[in-house]
Amino acid sequence: MHQWTTFAGRAALLTAGLLAVDCRDPQSPARRSRTSPEVAAAAQGIALDQKNGSFTESGSLLGKGFNPTNPHVGDAIIATFFWLGSSNIITSVTDHLANGTPVGNTYIPVEFVTADGISMATYVATNVQNFPDPNSTQNDILVVQADLSSPVTDGGVLLSAYTGVEPAFAQALGAHQSASGFGTSTTIADPGAIAIGAGALAYGVTMSNDATAGLSGPIKGDGEFAVPTAAGSVDPQWTWFFNSPDAPRTWLATVLSLVPPPATHLVFAVQPNDATAGSTIAPAVQVAAQDDAGNTVASFTGSITVALGTNPSGGTLSGTTIVTAVNGVATFSDLSIDKAGNGYTLVATTSGLTAATSAAFNITPPPATHLVFTVQPSNTTAGSAISPPVQVAAQDDAGNTVASFTGSITVALGTNPSGGTLSGTTIVTAVNGVATFSDLSIDKAGNGYTLVAAASGLTGATSTTFNITPRPQASGGGRIDPAIGKTTFGFHVDGTSGPPFKGEMEVVFHGGASHMMRIHSLVIDGVGSSRDPRGGLCVTWNGMARVNKTDQRRYTATACDNGQPGSTRGRGPDRFGITVDGSVSTGLTDLTGGNIRARE
């Protein structure tokens, strides 16, 4: 039902009411229950500011001040005058201060109704000015009075002032009408329903001539107002409890509407709060359409759009960004931003109104929840470092790398088809959320290896599959050839060197007695080739070998073909050299044809 607020009437009806009407319960008006539409009092916009009134007035004027407190400058004032009489005898309605100083606002007649010797007239002034706000003394109280063309024996006035009404009278006044009726017992006073917009003021007033013996005045009245938050109709009704079976009593009733000013601009009624990246901003952001006085215009039902204004991190605004306003307010309940950053703002726009920019807010990084391989392991040779280096990142649920994560990340073999061993630095501290593993290697060839990454508190990750291919292998030995007194080396290259070094080769190397050594159990982990400046091809082996039956040593051996006169291309090297541990070196030594034995 309508929620009406009584601002004047019997003291028993409303303790805040300032009009003590001379009547008892059986003769007093009461509001009848109403069923449609249901409305609630608006939180902003039009609101009752001040109220006052007086009955049992007589003479050639009816007036009352807003004591003890003036309304606000800019209010709309509704003044309803009651008197015994059948014609409109009001010549003018004016205002002045209690000390007699004229104020000069314009009061325009809106409704006059009369029946059975009683009359009621309602006047409205909008955007009232020129009085102290607030008043410092009672001499500064604003007084509204009606001057009458002839005196009355009984009369009264109800005054009420409202904030948030459209300043221009022509635009402020909505629907209005009056009615009258009579009854001898319980009677409904109903001026009729009027259409009203959301957030508009509905003002209703009634009076009757139900005189009762022993009371000082024959007339009584009640005024009420409501501010519906949804458009529809209002139909104020009062129940007069008449008890005069031999003499019907008369009632008068008026209803009118005043509208708020139009919306001119948007404001963020609920500013965006700080949130984590990808999470919904809470509480929900709200944008209101307001008038120039800063009142939310409940009748505004247009669409409002929000978008990113300041965007420090190139984030994306997600959620429902276009919302239809309800009672002048658009609520954005699912907004989120995907990237962390400080100093984001939102901008709200709608057609015809000035846009609004929100206060700055921050989007913080969400916590890391899982690991991902951002650089997957690639195929490589057994024993060689996996290149490019494997990288593992700590990411949040939205897939953003969390730069603040600085924990340790461990990698290990997952699928291990050949029983290989993972070597290198397998535990690395993340930098800006990423751990880089630059020296990982696996010692055994196989297809379908995987790595697994783990970190405390985070969901682990498994890499894509990759293959480890066999490294070049060579085996060989050396001996002292008694026939020539030199060291003879034999190499067998496992199909990786290609011509001219295909197959097993025995090479005499002219190193002299001081460099004679036995090299065997060779393993090659790197093979390269280059052009021989003499017109042939050189092949270089890097690897490990046992020297003179001792421990494994690092060596580099080079053989070149087609550099010596009399050599046969493709039948073996004509120069050979070897370096052991980077210190013992033969240099690249020429081999004569008689010292070369090579076979496929």
Radius of gyration: 50 Å
- Domains (count): 4
* Beta-strand percent range: over 45%
Number of helices: 1
- Total beta-strand segments: 50
Helix content: under 10%
- Uncertain stretches: 7-43, 212-217, 474-482, 484-517, 563-567, 592-600
- Describe the sheet with the most strands: 6 strands, antiparallel
SS content category: mainly beta
End-to-end Cα distance, whole Å, is 109 Å
Shape: rod-shaped
Mean pLDDT: 80
Short description:
Helices cover 1% and strands 48% of the residues.
Give the SSE map.
Elements: E1 5-8, E2 29-31, E3 47-65, E4 76-84, E5 90-97, E6 108-115, E7 118-125, E8 142-163, H1 169-172, E9 173-183, E10 186-189, E11 194-196, E12 201-208, E13 220-226, E14 232-234, E15 238-241, E16 249-258, E17 265-270, E18 275-276, E19 285-290, E20 303-308, E21 317-318, E22 322-324, E23 329-332, E24 336-337, E25 341-344, E26 346-349, E27 356-357, E28 361-364, E29 370-375, E30 380-381, E31 390-395, E32 408-413, E33 422-423, E34 427-429, E35 434-437, E36 441-442, E37 446-449, E38 451-454, E39 461-462, E40 466-469, E41 474-481, E42 486-493, E43 504-509, E44 519-531, E45 537-547, E46 552-561, E47 575-580, E48 584-585, E49 589-590, E50 596-598
Parallel strand pairs: 18-28, 30-40
Antiparallel strand pairs: 1-13, 2-15, 3-8, 4-7, 4-8, 5-8, 6-7, 9-16, 10-15, 11-14, 12-13, 12-16, 17-19, 19-23, 20-22, 20-26, 21-24, 25-28, 26-27, 29-31, 31-35, 32-34, 32-38, 33-36, 37-40, 38-39, 41-42, 42-43, 43-50, 44-45, 45-46, 46-47, 47-48, 47-49
